[in-house]
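Standup notes
- DV: blocked on the single-chain target, sequence here:
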Amino acid sequence: MINVIWFALIVIGFVFAAITGNIESVTTAAFDGAKTGVTVCFGLISVLVFWMGMMRIAEDSGLLKKIAKLLGPIVRFLFPDVPRDHPAIGYILSNMSANLLGLGNAATPMGIKAMQELQTLNPDKEVASPAMCTLLALNTASVTLIPTTLIAIRINYNSASPTEIVGTTLVATAIATMAAILADRWCRRWNLHRDRTPPATSISSKPSLKG
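- DV (later): unblocked, structure below
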């Protein structure tokens, strides 16, 4: 569906540009956008490599295990239907740890692996389970202590103070995470109440007796 939307936007843009006689501007903008994308990617490589290296050092030194241990009770509270010894717990903890450090690229593979493991516990393979919905919400609105990617982008564009967004990012992501958790808890309780509510049964009228 997303591919269809993007394709429609591109086609509409080209058609509108052709009608208004600005097709050259669209072509120029497309090439400039591609050039800017490559430039930004090269600017992000150094910062991402640095933080990925820091993540590897943290993993080898046992820091990630300590962070995972601290997050353990939170994960058990947020995912009550996942067994403690299930492999999904480890991937969820790794995903949350990477998101805390603002490493979205490192968190994504762990999130995918966690989803695959949660799918093994899902009784209905065609519908996302509550645990999968919880993980998606947390991964989308995760508390970020260090917005590494945003800092890298600001450095690439010669920001005077690229780290000044740390405080506001922390507040914004904390609020977003709390909203996601509250929404998830409400949806879980609503679904649980709906499943426990017995379906209404119709009372058929007795046939009339004819003499």
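- Follow-up: Residues 202-206 have pLDDT under 50 and may be disordered.
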